[in-house]
Structures are given as structure tokens and as C-alpha cells.
Amino acid sequence: MSQSIDLPTLDTLTQELAAIQQTGSKRIALLGSRHVPITHQQLIEMMSYALVLSGNRIMTSGATGTNSAAIKGAMRADPNLLTVILPQSLERQPRESQEQLRQVIHLVENPENDHLSLGEASAICNREIVSRCQQLICFAFHDSHTLLQTCQEAEEQRKLVTLFYFD
């Protein structure tokens, strides 16, 4: 009886090693759940702040929770190194997010998705964010379908993916 083991290819390992060793700035997407405890939000904010201070460009979306924390940290470090891509128009975002989002210099709205459900628009938005980044850092729960799908798509595009689970 033999078992097959799914090992990464040499090409995949080489690409991941090169991405980890890259010392220059990167385009890093920070995405995650809206339902995040305040202590976790503070850690995400600090991570975003440190990444921007290191010269990295942060990309995220406009939701509360993880994305809001990433925006806060990046804005404190250097607002010019933050890009926020919304799944729909600014007016369709939660009221508590709109004030923060109006301060973002590089804000991309997608009003053409206003007719879609938030889930559908978020999936499209996440794909756009992943297409623009070199690395994805994601904070999710094991049942966060849209986020887990985004991580899988990023891996298929050979992006460096770091996934943290809250549960």
C-alpha cells in the first residue's frame, strides 16, 4: 500500500523563496473578515503600519474590521502608499467606513457593481486586488468562503499567500 504525497514543485519553491528574500518594497494586499475582535484589529493595524514604514505599498478593500485596521495603520505611516479598492461605490459602503474612506488618497470605486450583492461584488473586488499585488496576507475564519476562495485564486496565480485563521 503506497500513499502519494503532494509535494510542491521546484518551480513553486523557487518562486516562494525569491518572494521571501526580496528586500525591496512589495505590493501587499491585506484582506480579511469584518468580524474581528478589537485586539486583533490593533495587531493588524500595527502590521500594516510596520509594512508601510518598511516601504511596502498596501492594498485593501473598504470594509470594517480587518480592512479598516489595515487602512488605519497605513494612513498613519504614509497615506501615499495605500490603495483602497471598493467592491461598489463609496455610497454603498457602511456609514461608519465612509468617513475613513474619504481620507484615502488612492481610492478606487466600482459603481458598476452596485447592482450586485455585496458577496458577489467583494469576490470581484478581491480578484482585482490580488491581480495588483505580489503578496496576500489574509485574516479569515474557516467558514469565510469568499476570503478562502480569494486565497486559492492568489495561490493559483503564484502569489505568496499568508493566511491567518481567527478560529
Q: What labels would you give this structure?
A:
167 residues, alpha/beta, Rossmann fold, 6-stranded parallel beta sheet, 6 helices, 45% helix, 17% strand, globular
Number of helices in the DSSP assignment: 6
Strand content: 15-25%
Helix content: 40-55%
Please, what is the oligomeric state?
single chain
The pLDDT mean sits at 90
Side-by-side strand order of the widest sheet: 4-3-2-1-5-6
Distance, first to last CA: 35 Å
The CATH class is identified as Alpha Beta
Give the SSE order as H and E letters: HEHEHEHEHEHE
Q: How many strand elements?
A: 6
Number of domains: 1
Please, could you describe this protein's structure?
With 167 residues, the protein is of the alpha/beta class. It has one domain (25-165): Rossmann fold (3-Layer(aba) Sandwich), CATH 3.40.50.450. Helix content is 45%, strand content 17%. It has helices at residues 10-21, 38-53, 66-77, 95-102, 118-132, 145-156, and strands spanning 27-32, 57-60, 82-85, 106-108, 135-140, 160-165. A six-stranded parallel beta sheet has the order 4-3-2-1-5-6, sandwiched between helices. Strand 5, helix 6 and strand 6 form a beta-alpha-beta unit. The longest helix is centred in the first third of the chain and has 16 residues, at 38-53. The radius of gyration is 16 Å and the shape is globular.
